[in-house]
TrEMBL record:
Name this protein carries in UniProt: TRAP transporter large permease protein
UniProt GO cellular component terms: plasma membrane
Annotated keywords: Cell inner membrane, Cell membrane, Membrane, Transmembrane, Transmembrane helix, Transport
Membrane topology summary: Multi-pass membrane protein
Residue ranges constituting the TRAP C4-dicarboxylate transport system permease DctM subunit domain according to the UniProt record: 11-461
Top-rank taxon, per record: Bacteria
Amino acid sequence: MTDAHIAVGMLLILILTIFLGFPVAFTLMALGVGFGYYAYYDAGRMWRGYDRALESGGDAATLAQTWIGGFFNNRIFDLFVNQTYSVIQNDVLTAIPLFLFMGYIVERANIVDRLFSTLFSVTRRVPGSMAVAALVTCTLFATATGIVGAVVTLMGLLALPAMLKAKYDVRYATGVICAGGTLGILIPPSILLIVYAATSGISVVRMYAAALLPGLALAGFYLIYVVVRAILQPQLAPRPTKEDVGEHTPVQLAWMMLTSFAPLAFLILAVLGAILFGLATPSEAAAIGALGGLALAAAYRALTWQRLKESVYLTARTTAMVCWLFVGSATFASVFAYLGGQQFISDFVTGLDMSPLMFLILAQIIIFILGWPLEWTEIIVIFIPIFIPLLPHFGIDPLFFGILVAINLQTAFLSPPMAMSAYYLKGVSPPHVKLTDIFRGMMPYMLIVILCMVVIYLFPSIVYMLPNLLYGVQR
């Protein structure tokens, strides 16, 4: 058995342990260090001190000390320390805790209920008005937080009971909440895009510019589906009565929009605009967003010590998870490549003589399947580095590939049996809302995601238009 075969076995063990439910970050580190000990094993270097102590007739304590020193004199431990230091020093990743803090503090600012009721009042004459309001609220809130579970849960507590009370179809109502809640991982400022950029070496700023139009396009497709379905099947979304909406003058509606929709939209646009127009780095813009989130919570009189403490704790916990994933992935990938696993996979894939389209389809199918048991962070950090070195062979731009991956990962939250959005929503739904109904409600949105990927492939200018306009054509 060659070292390359051992590397492939290392990858298979990783996949098996993940499916068994072992913690991914610690599994990566354990496999990286374990197989790395074999890969970098050098008896002459490691046990030189022990051999000298043995030859000179050293006592038992000296022999034990030199043996332990020799055991840890493997270069894998140097590699592990260096990878940890590199992750901590990565300027791109500095933006992650700041964006997370902005999301958690905005989540606790108690503006979602006001935002939803305002949008419902404004869109009351649109078919499926309550679903439209829920989708727009989900999109805006998900973009601000980037935390799928928080968005789906809050909207499940707020919008779902209102839609069910208005006699909306259960599948229609649950589907729009689950789909809308996932958009935050695609539309900038998105943490997923930062992680992909750090993994692939792409500029975060260019990544954000490339993802903006595709993200809005997917949200637009969702919106079209919701409205058209309500027109064709009005029994799914009955029109609201005056008692449901209430009477509001245009001036009142404008004031409601100004006090609920405008502040959050301004915060998102300010952060995103500062990044896209080069006024601030992503980390600096994230700091602005965190400060803006605090100001927004204070303005809505929702900034309490308990909420601030919860936001800081959740930010630290999630950031630590992402950082240790990066450390484990970097260590695992280094050992995997050193053993020849990356070259083995590259030779195998290139030997299949696939066209670029066939490779793209195969890669997206693999990512789609991985989305069943894994979170997007694990897919980006562990498996995307395997695809990135193959892209030049097929003439595929990593930026374009990354946008397709970000769209595809919407399905990670929408595809049964491990559709996390469905479980988030089921946890806060009334007892009569069945999990199977939620699954069926999400199915059309999975097809819309696939449609969006096809459109992006056929019209790649949707991806390149904004980055080329702002920063010029990349050569």
